[in-house]
Please model this.
Amino acid sequence: EVQLVESGGGLVQAGGSLRLSCAASGFSFDDHVIGWFRQAPGQEREGVACFSRFQGRAYYADSVKGRFTISSDNAKTTVYLQMNSLKPEDTGVYYCARGCPDPDYWGKGTLVTVSS
Model:
């Protein structure tokens, strides 16, 4: 069974940092691209970052380039999203997903709130 479980969200002041984690099971990172998406209140879900371990490449939305970093652990079971220099517009529910840009499995999300 494919499972994706996010953690690490919370309340942070503008300019601060958070690291989100996505614990994945039921499939191999080597066979799939993993993505982080977010949904702000009243807005559509958008892609934030994608990571392909077998390609060794990461892709970022323009709005987060230079501030966010996606990576995975050596055991290939957890994907991280390091978020620095956070802005109020980064507020939203962050989802981990298998597949990018069109996922087939989603986690339940973790809330990130950035106060000004």
